[in-house]
Specification:
With 120 residues, the protein is an all-alpha fold. The chain has helices at 5-16, 23-33, 48-66, 70-84, 90-102, 109-119. Helix content is 68%, strand content 0%. The longest helix is centred in the middle third of the chain and has 19 residues, at 48-66.
Length: 120
């Protein structure tokens, strides 16, 4: 599952970036992780259960990253995105992030800004 760590981190951050965790967003996260394919690898996808367990294990650490000062967060995000751009189709990732962001029937400013950084 290490091969999926960066992608799962990015998608999990979409859940966490607005400082609240909605169960429906976590559900979309785990479903998406179990279905999205890393383009250059022929590996089995993590199950929804494994993705959920990973989220529960990492969410406190990821929340600490989300709460960093904006400049520090942006540096962290740039490094992560450089690794991910070689792994999966950007349009598919943004689509999943948008699905996560609207799962709770509201797309807040933090989620919008976070997703827009990927489009830039």
């Amino acid at each position: 599952m290490d091969e999926y760590k960066d992608l799962m981190t990015l998608l999990a951050m979409t859940v966490l970036v607005d400082s609240k965790v909605a169960e429906c967003e976590v559900d979309i996260f785990s479903k998406a992780v179990s279905r999205i394919k890393i383009s250059h690898l022929e590996l089995p996808l993590p199950s929804e259960r494994a993705a959920l367990a990973w989220f529960k294990e990492k969410h406190i650490y990821l929340r600490s990253i989300a709460n960093k000062p904006r400049a520090d967060f942006d540096v962290w995000l740039d490094i992560l995105l450089k690794r991910i751009e070689k792994q999966a189709e950007a349009g598919a990732i943004v689509h999943v992030m948008e699905m996560i962001a609207i799962a709770d029937d509201e797309k807040c400013e933090q989620e919008t800004q976070f997703i827009e950084q990927l489009k830039a």
